[in-house]
Amino acid sequence: MRIKIAHDARPQVRTLLSATALAVVLWFIPFAEVLTYPFRIFVTFIHEGGHALAALLTGNSVHGLSVALNGSGEVYSTTGGVLSQMFVSSAGYLGAMAFGALLLILIRRTIAARFVLVGSAALILVLTVGYGFFSPLMHNSLPSLFTLVAGVALPVALIAAARFAPPRVAGFLVSFLAVQCVLNALFDLKTVLFLSSPFVVGAHTDALNMASATGIPAFFWAIVWIGIAFAILSMSLRAYAVSRDKPSQPDLPFEDPLEV
Asked: Which residue in 79, 169, 174, 194 has the most C-beta neighbors within 10 A?
């Protein structure tokens, strides 16, 4: 059974390839990181949101979420048993990858791009208000000012794009967000792999948290996460753009109805 790009997915694939090409080109343009900076902060919110959700799902409480000016972030939560710690530690990079894959699948399922943008805005706002603002106050610490500013500015920008951008532009923006989630997760995992090598000492990473919980070296967990990330990416791309030909079932000559 041959596998090919579905005919109805080709316009979406072209949009995705254009978004990917733009993301790659911007890496090689001096100071272009200023243009992609908001997307980097968006991905950090998704990464930290993955940790927070995993903590809640494993019966822990989240004491705070913060995003820093340099694009890093932290989630403060209680710790459970070994399985809980493993799940929470893994949910950052893999959560960002899974969210990017989810965006691809949503637009492939013909969910309007403006709804995806509004949903993404709502997610960032919930993380900001719930865990960036109220949780720190409830646990006697001050919220991060940058987290609050970014956590409001991003939803406003996404909602404005959903409201005013033409459908093609909104669709391109969703594809670009998906690409940023996927590529940032992959490149961050590459950095984690390097920082987890025996030649680097003192670097604190999610993989080091996994090593502390399990006694298995951080380098091993970085490799496992990279493998899972590529598996998620492969499955999402297949769901996004690939169809299977069935030679025994010829296409029927259906025609699109005329628009009134």
From this structure: 174
